[in-house]
Amino acid sequence: MTQKKLRAADFSLEEKVVAINRVTKVVKGGRNFSFSAIVVVGDGKGVVGHGLGKAKEVTSAITKGVEEAKKNLIKVPILRNTIPHESTAKFCGGLVLLKPAAPGTGIIAGGGVRIVLESAGVHNVLSKSKGSSNPHNVVKATFKALLQLRDPIAVATQRGITLDQVFNG
């Protein structure tokens, strides 16, 4: 399923930093320090993106990460403040399970998964993160899981049935 390209200018995006990592390169003259930042941007209404920025200063790394994230925007189907169905995805060593939750549950998630879901505008969801706790892998696995989600209205029209029949069918 290919997704149409979303333009960052069409949305009022909020940025959140998932992780900042200091990287050291040992050279002949000593040590060179640089920073890498994983950033998630989202409008809280179903649009979210992630990016990685690397620079000599933290602020520059975050800025680069935001620019990268604006290029990787995806649309997440949200139904009654939760996701429409269960989804599991794996990226490298990180495995993420997302499950819809009843109203009032909140976001039961940790680290990178929580930040991605908050930015996307999901308010009630259960999640489990297994395997690698590396923020890169967890964020990318979460995005992979969100991309697997299918919009229930689109599924209903495709099957030629009502929305109630999709869930109770």
Can you put this structure into words, describing what you see?
The structure is a single chain. With 169 residues, the chain is α+β, with helices and mostly antiparallel strands. The protein has two domains: 67 residues, Double Stranded RNA Binding Domain; 92 residues, Ribosomal Protein S5, domain 2, CATH 3.30.230. The chain is 31% helix and 35% strand. The protein contains five helices and eight strands; from the N terminus they run βββαββββαβααα. A four-stranded antiparallel sheet has the order 1-2-3-4. A four-stranded mixed sheet has the order 5-6-8-7. Strand 7, helix 2 and strand 8 form a beta-alpha-beta unit. The longest helix has 14 residues. The chain is elongated and about 70 Å long. The model has no long low-confidence stretch (mean pLDDT 89).
Run of helices and strands? EEEHEEEEHEHHH
Q: Report the uncertain regions.
A: none
Strand content: 25-35%
Please state the second-level CATH architecture of the largest domain.
2-Layer Sandwich
Broad CATH class of the largest domain: Alpha Beta
Tell me the strand order in the biggest sheet. Answer: 1-2-3-4
Radius of gyration: 18 Å
Shape: elongated
What is the fold named in CATH at topology level of the largest domain? Ribosomal Protein S5, domain 2
What is the percent of helical residues? 25-40%
Largest pleated sheet:
4 strands, antiparallel
Q: What is the residue-averaged pLDDT?
A: 89
Structural class: alpha+beta
Instruction: Note the gap between the termini.
Output: 24 Å
Whole-number tally of structural domains: 2
Q: Compute the number of helices.
A: 5
Number of DSSP strand runs: 8
